[in-house]
Specification:
The structure is a homodimer.
Chain A lengths: L1 E11 L4 E10 L2 E6 L8 E4 L4 E4 L1 E6 L8 H9 L3 E6 L2 H7 L1 H10 L6 E6 L17 H5 L7 E7 L2 H5 L3 H12 L3 E4 L6 H9 L4 E2 L5 H9 L3 E5 L22 E4 L5 H6 L3 H10 L4 H7 L2 H7 L15 E6 L4 E7 L2 E5 L2 E2 L9 H8 L20 E7 L6 E7 L14 E7 L8 E7 L7 E4 L8 E5 L2 H13 L3 E6 L2 E7 L11 H17 L8 H7 L8 E4 L2 E4 L4 E2 L5
Helix pairs in contact in A: 2-3, 3-13
């Protein structure tokens, strides 16, 4: 069946021009761009006054951060014009290992959204982490046979790269041998250290936070992924990279974007829109969002409206505002007038599905499990800093006689990280300041990067209750007060993803947040986000894992007691 | 061993900037670009006031046209700053089939010049051709295992592509499946035919002869190879492609360049030099000559002065004049102050070498072999047009009583194409006008694309003598007068290549041309060049092959007699 899009204006990403051309499509490919007529097609779509634009590609994202399954994500982003994503299944791999990657591959197979993956390079993220799995170079190697595996995902272990860590280099070598790309993650790395990192084969970075940092990377041959997600928003600082010559070596990515943000704000379209609003060329921004992503990842004949190219095409009613009206994925019309046509959900092997849906392997909790043995009156308290993932160490006098050290007046709450993958019984207990709960407790199985069960509360009883609420639903987040569950988000897939649409997750999430605010934690604290990173032992200074407190700079466990 | 190039100015092809940086090299790779100091290196080269530039890559050339072996070619072009070439062994494949390709691979293995190949797509060029071999998709497939095979070479059979010829599509499909590139060759193809050709997977073209033609191809997603060789010189007409945005999708190629031209004029450096002299940006031209060629062909970490990149580096004493002083190939200094260091010639398997050195399989000729049986007084004569490869049909009255039809007054000479690969005894005989010989005869085994033995002469005796001179030396070109050999160029490898340096071939060639001019053919006629293409049955209108005259437009044999 041949389909003609006529009377439109093609956004040409090779010439950065707007060309009045008709576009002919057959068998999922564009077969002609030119003076084609109605009689050459079976179906004719008149797109007078509109723009025919290549579909957008997100060059780096974590599907898990959207809390959606690949199929639900496809629905959420296709309407925003994203027809391809390159995902790093780092989170689910930390929970479910190879099964997690397999699940992601199967759950995204055959979607109208082209879903590619990079292999998670750092599982677990550090030797201190007690994740659900460990992935060696041997474990990863076999995945390269799958055509949707494009390379090695963000190499966060730049210390390992710079110091020639054997296992790290083996993973890099495998990707190089396979002729695949290797993404970087090395914020603020510069000069000779950056040279060493780039020389090792790391070809991109999405952690740039200044124009100068981006320029240095481009000069050194890296591609810069301009990131605009939920927490990390680098677009404004990197806006000059949208100019020549820099834009030729940039792509656009979201990295981590929450369901509510995707639902309300959009996806890659939102980045293009904002860049254009800031005065940048729509052609250049669209080029960064399409052919350049395809070029970087070696995706053939993808990312342009040109003969032979995959017919991933957007019809925009407004170029500057990036108003997506229709979307064609491999030549099929999947979005019409902004509305999605039905999408078939890929079937996942049932044992694989069971594996990722039953990621919790931990017994139910009791209040006594949260009791801290008093050994010293002076303890290290994790002090959270607003709007930052950094934490500080606060040496505080603990009044053990008062609720086993919890002190609502000084905002000293109890925090627990409960190993939940292998039922080891490990748990780290400590105190945290800066969250602001005045009653109840909150818990979440989103806890970077090992995704153990993390609980913060004002009483051991409520901590046990909220932990059990999450355990019983097989993952997610919840808020409890006086033993009663106030709200919850159910994330049964790996404890990370729901199987409901963005809108519903967004609504549940909103209700949960309102409940948490009702317990006293203010919006400014971003309590769930803060909680999700308080266990990430790569961000300074004082963190907590399943064994207790961690001195991030020394990369070692440290006693609660001073 | 670490080598430091200090105090130079790096030509940065990512940012199009000239950066004052030091460059550190180790194990054939650049490992740092920045403020490195003497104590970080074992060898320090001070290049104050000079430019540190990536080595040039010729994106499409026929080594056979240089008449040199790969090793001699390496010597000839390295001093001009070419560190990589992508060659189409089309000519030797037409003579020796798979052996010809194997020979080229072995004879170029391990040279400091990085020699890559595309697989000849059209051997023989047309069904009318009686070449030394026929290469099917099956024959080609196995070659993709070699890492230096980058794809399928210029697909000249655009009629076959546009009409879905099964064998042509099989060759294309194989290249696509292997993820390799497919070069095009489709002069003046435009509009819907071009769409079909591009849709089939043809990703580049080197036959563009106007800016508009180049723009159309770039808009449609093809890469344009700006060609400047010996006969075809498109640079001046395509000069505006050196501007943005077009230059982003262009590379530089020589296609066919003769040894004398390489010796006197240069190689890719000559193209960059001329573009700069015409006011174009040196950074852009160098980018087209380096990273963009590497990018198009999927060569990883090649074509830039950046960390991790192969240390193919030029030291230029003048940027605008592209004065190449030193050349580093994979970190080794192979040219110093314009002089070549010694280059090891690759060893070729002896049976393979014998095969390509004994490509002549034809008996010695006698004068009687050139006799034409008079059947009609009106004959079709091939009329050559000065400075064109096109020929016309001239219906002439032949006076058979006078030298079997040869008529020096009307410049009607005799021409013969003698099958020389398989001793079939086939020979095409006819008459040719426009060459201008007044005595003697000339012969050559360079006769596109089948490279049979072609002879033009003023007498049957001298035609036999000159044919035998070429046969006895196993290939090449010669001029004879009254039975005496005046001059010759010996090309024993496939009848196409010498094993002597460019300078020597150039000198021999010059002597031969002087001899030919002494026989009456003027320089303006370009007699050897004209002779080399009078058997190419894809260029209109009247040509001659081993079976006699060919009507190119009808693609069929046609009688000598009217």
């Amino acid at each position: 069946m041949k389909r003609l899009l006529k009377n439109g204006t093609v956004v040409n990403v090779f010439s950065d021009t707007l060309d009045r051309e008709n576009v002919l499509i057959e068998d999922g490919r564009i077969i002609g761009v030119g003076a084609y007529t109605d009689d050459e097609a079976d179906v004719v779509e008149d797109v007078t006054g509109k723009y025919i634009c290549p579909g957008f590609i997100d060059g780096h994202m974590h599907i898990e951060s959207t809390m959606m399954t690949p199929a639900e994500l496809a629905k959420a982003v296709l309407i925003h014009g994203t027809t391809g994503i390159v995902a790093d299944p780092h989170e689910i791999a930390n929970v479910c290992g190879k099964n997690g990657i397999e699940y992601m591959l199967e759950a995204s197979e055959g979607l109208p959204l082209s879903v590619y993956f990079m292999l998670p390079s750092c599982v677990p993220s550090t030797p201190l982490d007690e994740a659900g799995a460990e992935l060696s170079a041997d474990d990863l190697r076999g995945f390269y046979e799958n055509g949707r595996i494009l390379g090695l995902a963000e190499m966060m272990n730049y210390v390992g790269v710079v110091n020639d860590d054997r296992e790290v280099l083996a993973k890099i070598d495998d990707a190089v041998k396979e002729g695949r790309v290797i993404d970087g993650h090395a914020p603020l790395l510069t000069g000779k250290d950056l040279d060493k990192y780039v020389t090792a084969g790391i070809q991109s970075d999405h952690e740039c936070s200044s124009f100068e940092e981006g320029c240095e990377r481009i000069r050194k041959g890296q591609w810069v992924m301009v990131r605009q997600g939920t927490a990390a928003r680098n677009l404004d600082d990197l806006i000059d990279l949208f100019d020549e010559p820099w834009n030729r070596r940039c792509l656009l990515v979201t990295d981590d974007k929450h369901p509510a943000d995707i639902f309300h704000d959009g996806h890659i379209d939102a980045i293009v829109r904002r860049a254009v609003a800031k005065g940048k060329s729509p052609c250049a921004a669209i080029r960064m969002a399409s052919i350049q992503a395809a070029g970087y990842f070696g995706l053939k004949r993808t990312g342009a409206v040109a003969p032979g190219y995959r017919a991933d095409i957007l019809i925009l009613s407004d170029l500057d505002k990036v108003e997506v009206e229709d979307v064609y994925a491999r030549g099929e019309k999947v979005v019409s007038q902004g509305c999605l046509t039905s999408i078939k959900t890929p079937s996942v092997d049932s044992s694989l599905y069971d594996a990722v849906r039953n990621s919790f392997n931990v017994r139910l909790q009791e209040a006594a499990d949260f009791f801290i043995q008093p050994e010293s009156d002076r303890c290290r308290v994790i002090r959270c800093i607003r709007r930052q993932l950094l934490t500080e160490e606060w040496i505080a006098e603990i009044d053990w006689n008062r609720d086993n050290g919890i002190d609502l007046e000084r905002d000293i709450l109890k925090i627990a990280v409960i190993e939940r993958h292998n039922n080891t019984g490990h748990r780290g207990l400590g105190f945290i300041n800066g969250i602001g709960l005045k009653k109840g407790a909150i818990a979440s199985s989103i806890s970077h990067d090992s995704h153990n069960l993390i609980v913060i509360g004002t009483s051991d009883e409520d901590m046990a209750a909220v932990a059990n609420a999450v355990i019983e639903q097989g993952g997610g987040c919840a808020a409890v007060c006086d033993g009663k569950v106030l709200a919850r988000v159910s994330l049964p897939i790996g404890g990370l993803m729901a199987d409901t649409p963005a809108e519903e997750i967004s609504r549940e999430h909103h209700e949960l947040m309102e409940s948490i605010y009702s317990l006293g934690a203010s919006e400014e604290v971003a309590p769930l986000m803060t909680m999700a990173f308080v266990s990430l032992t790569v961000i300074p200074f004082l963190k907590i894992n399943t064994f207790g407190l961690v001195d991030v700079e020394k990369q070692e466990q440290i006693s609660l007691y001073v």
